[in-house]
Structure formats: structure tokens, C-alpha cells
Amino acid sequence: MERERNKVLLYYNAYSGSGMFRNNLDHIIDRCQYHGMQLIPVRAAKGRVIDEVLSQINPEEFNRIIVAGGDGTTNLCVNAMVRHGIHLPLGLLPSGTANDFAYYFELPSDLYSQMDIALGSKTTQADVGRVNNRCFINVAAMGTMVGVSQKTDPNLKNALGPLAYYLKALTELPQIHPIDVKLITPEETFEEQIYFMVVMNGESAGGFRRLSPQSSINDGKLDVVAFRKMPIVEFGPLLFEVVSGRHPENRNVLCFQVDQLRIESAEDLETDIDGEQGEKLPLEFSVLKKRLDVFVSETGWRYDD
User: Beta strands 123-131 and 134-136: pairing type?
Assistant: First the structure.
């Protein structure tokens, strides 16, 4: 007899969005029960709990996983899914300061509509980036500015959202300096002096909605955007180009697509993965092509096939 797949695993960050999610937990349980689904809640605790839970569940009893939180919470869940070979479709309830992965899928801002999508049936495939032994859903960043998200006061993030990152970034400008890096692809090697760079799976990061405007989340490629050494006076105009998504044409920006990449540097380069502290160099990048099935709106969402 085939086992009924009526369970939903909910992995939630109780503190994202100033803890607002906790007030809606009963609503989420009610919606799942209405659809005949049994909700299994798992409270986020720095990745340890979700890793243990996914190592023990029987995936044949579940029909989906729902993540409530920001990019960091989703990152922890996806890493655990990959580590334990879990291929359940993923629903997103974005409630963190950074929701760039969910933003790519054009999810609505209200919880009721988000639940409609998370409990629906329409999915699209998404790549997962890999750097050394860790996965990332949206972005891996490196350089003198990437510590901004880690240094920003969590209370300020909850109060101001992405603006908190900009304010912190202004305090870091006096410390900015170029770093010598070697970017090695299967076809070409680049030796550059950069201030910072990102390896993107999605389009946006840190409040910049068009940081990688050419990115497609299921094309099997990662998009590299490196900001070269430049006169400080050129930073301002470049920032406006980044906001509008016109920076790939700027001579101070190096952009290319790749499915494999190695980054080397003699310096101790600070790195960041989906808003959390990243890996030590050298960095080896690859792509898990179309590894995730993500729930999207039944109508009005673009497909990147």
C-alpha cells in the first residue's frame, strides 16, 4: 500500500522580520489543515536542527518543504536538503531582511497570497550554486565590502531593512582597498585588482535589485560581476549605474558567465555566502543544475526555460 504524502515540513526563523512570523504561525497551521496536510514545524537554530531532522525523515511521507525567513534561513535548509539527498519541492514565505531568492520569483508581499503559492501545485526549477563544500541559493560575495551584512546590527536590519546595509557601507568606505585576485575558468584566466565581486545565481543582493541583470536562475550558469580598482571619484556614478542595472557596460566592471570557477588570492579575502560568513580561499565554484523545484504563482510568473 502506498504511503500517503500529506506531511509538510515548515522550517521557520522565529526572529526574522522582527519576529512577526511567530504571530502568523497559527494561520499557517490552519491553512495546511484546511488542505488536508499535516504541518511539522521545525524552528531554525543555526542549521543544526534542520540538518538533523532531514537526516531522519522519510521523504515519502512529505509532499513539500516550506521555509519561512530570509535568504540565510533558506540557505541552511537547501544545504541540508542537498547534503541528505532530499528532493521535495520548496515553498517560500519571505520574512527576513534579505529576501533576494524569493524576490527573483516575484512572490507577493502578503502572507495569505504567499501561502496560496506555497500550498499550490505550480513549480519552476532553480539551480543551486556550490562553493567549496557549501551551497548558495543567491550570491557568494568577496572583497573589502562584503563584511557589511555581517557587521550590521540585527536590530537596525529589522528596523530599516536594506537601508541599514547602505548606512553601514558608508562607514566602511575609508577602509576600501584593491585586492589582487586570479579568476580561473575552463576557458580563460583573469588576473585583476578588484574592490569586491559577486558570483550570482539570482539577480539581486543587498537591496540592489539589478546587480546581475542578465542572470537566469535555471540556465546552469553562474554570473560573475567584479568591480575593478578605480578612482574613488568614479564610485558615485557607478553606484547609480548599479541601481539601474547598466553597470555591465562600465569599463570598471568585469562580467562573465561560467559553470566552473576557481578564485585565488595571496590576501586573506573576506567572503560571504547568502549574507553569512563564507569560505576561505581558494574558492571552487560549480553549479547543481536545476536542483530545486520552487513553488511559484499559478499566473503571471515568467519562466526561464
Answer: antiparallel
Q: How far apart are CA 91 and CA 66, in angstroms?
A: 4
Q: Determine contact, residues 7/63, Cβ cutoff 8 Å.
A: yes
- How high is the pLDDT of residue 20? 65
What's the predicted TM-score (pTM) here?
0.87
Task: Tell me the CA distances in angstroms from 47 to 44, 145, 151, one per residue in order.
Answer: 7, 25, 20
Helices (H), the chain: 25-34, 48-56, 71-83, 100-104, 111-118, 148-151, 154-160, 163-172, 235-244
**Residue given cell 508581499 in the structure block:** 109
E strand spans, 112-151: 123-131, 134-136, 139-143
Nearest to 205 by CA among 145, 302, 154, 275: 275
Measured distance CA(32)–CA(39) in Å, rounded: 6
Report the alpha-carbon distance of residue 299 to residue 305 in Å, rounded: 16
Q: How far is CA 104 from CA 100, 117, 277, in A?
A: 6, 14, 22
For residue 40, report the phi and psi dihedrals to the nearest 5 degrees. Answer: -115, 100
Tell me: the pLDDT tens digits for 157-166? 555 454 455 4
pLDDT digits (tens, 9 = 90+) for 129-154: 999 999 999 999 988 666 555 555 55
b or e along 155-190 (b: 16 or more beta carbons within 10 Å of the residue's beta carbon)? Answer: eebbeeebebbeebbeeeeeeeebbebebbbeeeee
Question: What are residue 198's DSSP bridge partners?
Answer: 141, 225
Show the cell assigned to 96: 527576513
